[in-house]
């Protein structure tokens, strides 16, 4: 992270970071079979399903906050920025899971290493399913972007019958970058959001007649508060 602005962890490393056994994270996976459709896609697609949750994380633990809209300024998301997007909340079984809470606390420790002195993190959790059954799915329809936070963690939960989904990370101030594909369940990409932009390429089914999807968990960590509409921003 210090050298390049990003890091890739295998599943074993992510589990150790969170103080968990390797199998503990896999207990979260059933939640991805109960994600409602994303009703806010502006590209006309119907390939994305998701939920959303918000938390405060500090030395005392993980504290859920009342359900709130997800909002980004157009500076960070030209396609979906400037609007309040209300998604269905995380399933209680996931939000209260000891493995999920340990994951948030472990990654909050990484965020504090990245931004020393921060005592409280404002965290948003986004479980996504990109379904490309019979067509194309776009993990990042907004293209290469930053999220307007401090740390972004992209966790691969599953790939079923898909090709594509290459991750691309580029220095925000130069054309230098890396391209790779996450394939191991519960491997993770960590991003210093101030230094890099990122995107994932579209996915397609390997076998067109069979179900195909890519499941991820995106966690964002931000100092000072959640992103909310401010006077002077588009709404």
Summarize the structure in words.
- This protein has 235 residues and is mainly β.
- The protein has one domain: q2cbj1_9rhob like domain (Jelly Rolls, Sandwich).
- Helices cover 12% and strands 31% of the residues.
- Strands 1, 2, 3, 4, 5, 6, 10 and 13 form an eight-stranded antiparallel beta sheet that branches.
- A hairpin with a 5-residue loop joins strand 8 and strand 9.
- Helix 1 crosses helix 3.
- The longest helix is centred in the middle third of the chain and has 17 residues.
- The chain is globular and about 50 Å long.
List keywords for this structure.
single chain; 235 residues; mainly beta; Jelly Rolls; three-stranded antiparallel β-sheet
Summarize the structure.
The protein is mainly beta and 235 residues long. The protein has one domain: Jelly Rolls, CATH 2.60.120.
Treating each run of at least 4 consecutive H or I residues as one helix, how many helices?
Answer: 3
CATH superfamily: q2cbj1_9rhob like domain
**Would you tell me the overall average pLDDT?**
92
Alpha-carbon Rg, integer: 17 Å
Total beta-strand segments? 13
Q: According to CATH, what is the topology?
A: Jelly Rolls
Shape descriptor: globular
Reported CATH architecture: Sandwich
The CATH C-level name is Mainly Beta
| Amount of beta strand | 25-35%
**Roughly how much helix do the residues carry, as a percent range?**
10-25%
The number of domains: 1
N-to-C span: 34 Å
String of helices and strands: EHEEEHHEEEEEEEEE
Report the uncertain regions.
none
Structural class: mainly beta
Give a short account of the largest sheet.
8 strands, antiparallel
């Amino acid at each position: 992270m210090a050298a390049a602005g990003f890091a890739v962890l295998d599943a074993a490393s992510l589990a150790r970071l969170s103080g968990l056994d390797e199998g503990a994270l896999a207990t979260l996976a059933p939640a991805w079979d109960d994600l409602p459709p994303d009703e806010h896609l502006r590209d006309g697609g119907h390939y994305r399903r998701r939920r959303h949750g918000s938390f405060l994380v500090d030395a005392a633990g993980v504290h859920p906050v009342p359900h709130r809209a997800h909002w980004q300024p157009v500076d960070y998301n030209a396609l979906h920025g400037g609007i309040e997007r209300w998604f269905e909340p995380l399933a209680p079984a996931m939000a209260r899971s000891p493995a999920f809470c340990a994951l948030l606390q472990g990654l909050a420790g990484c965020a504090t290493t990245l931004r020393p002195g921060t005592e409280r993190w404002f965290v948003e959790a986004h479980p996504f399913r990109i379904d490309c059954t019979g067509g194309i799915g776009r993990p990042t329809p907004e293209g290469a972007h930053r999220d307007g936070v401090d740390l972004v963690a992209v966790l691969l939960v599953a790939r079923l019958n898909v090709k594509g989904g290459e991750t691309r990370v580029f220095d925000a101030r130069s054309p230098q970058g890396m391209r790779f594909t996450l394939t191991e369940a519960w491997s993770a990409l960590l991003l210093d959001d101030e230094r890099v932009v990122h995107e994932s390429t579209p996915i397609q089914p390997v076998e067109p007649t069979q179900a195909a999807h890519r499941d991820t968990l995106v966690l964002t960590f931000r100092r000072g508060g959640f992103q909310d509409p401010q006077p002077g921003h588009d709404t």
